[in-house]
Amino acid sequence: MQDKQHPAGAPRASGFAALGDNPWVLMLLPGLFWAGNAIVARSVTADVPPIGLAFWRWTLAALVVLPIAWPHLARDLPKMRERWPIMLLLTTLGISIFNTFLYIAAHTTTAINIVMLQTAMPIVVVLATFLIFREAVTGRQAAGIVASFAGTLILISHGDPDVLLNLDFKRGDLWMLAAVVCYAVYTALLRVRPPVHGFSFAFASFALGALLLLPFYVAETILVGSFPVTTNALAALGYVAVFASVFAYMAFNRTVALLGANLAGLTVHLIPVFGIVLAVLLLGERVHLYHGAGIALIAFGLWLATRKPTTD
């Protein structure tokens, strides 16, 4: 699909800026930064209320993006106001609901359940694009998605089928399932977002997302408690606002523009891959055979799904 930031015939950037046109590099970033999102959320569940974390995440993310988006906002704000229904829908699904539900799920289910449900997202994206736009997935893409999904299950289960068969489903899994459906629809609908600069869209989405959460944050503060100003809480906020929000969302939205929703959704399968890499590098965990098998299957699935068909 045509990129809204680079119309047909326009010159492409070179050097570092050209990374913004390389979907294969961009696909890596959301998986890397989102790998820590659920872990960070789980690590502060005892102290940080979920809506408070989501509200301040998007507030800080909007402030971080604002200086970069500022030169484009005068031109782009009228376009976004004209398309306010789709802006409101995208923000509600992908910003306000998805991460808030994920953080609520983190309070009431396990990290493995969250990751397992999240890895089903590419399949839900395919269903969403078909139901909304009647866009069918090719046999090659379907096979790639299935192979990649199987690889994530190997990683999540540590190569032991009994882990999956004996999963203890909890109330929080329903929150996570709803979050996955919302983000899948968000991903599918990104193709009809206003044709504005990526930073303008990110700022408007982040700011509107925080505004939509404000009344719920006020209610949570009154009923549960306020966001704690502690070192751990602020460190968690900094990570989810800058890395899991600004960097990850910008890269993911750009990948959707370059590859389409069905293929961009496969970035989710890189989350457990980077989770393992970080565990080995930072925690000294040992590499096992199932790690290699799962990662190889994910890599094969990504290659198969994104490979351009050869012509005779």
Automatic annotation (TrEMBL):
Biological source species: Hyphomicrobium nitrativorans NL23
Domain (EamA) ranges: 25-156, 171-306
Subcellular location: Membrane
Pfam families: EamA
Domain of life: Bacteria
Keyword Phosphoprotein included in the entry's annotation: no
InterPro entries, per the entry: AA-Vitamin_Transporters, EamA_dom, EmrE-like
A GO-annotated cellular component: membrane
Membrane topology according to the record: Multi-pass membrane protein
Segments crossing the lipid bilayer: 24-43, 55-74, 86-105, 111-133, 142-159, 174-192, 199-219, 231-252, 259-283, 289-306
Keywords (A to Z) from UniProt: Membrane, Transmembrane, Transmembrane helix
Keyword field contains Transmembrane helix: yes
Protein known as: DMT transporter permease
Family membership: Belongs to the EamA transporter family.
Primary location: membrane
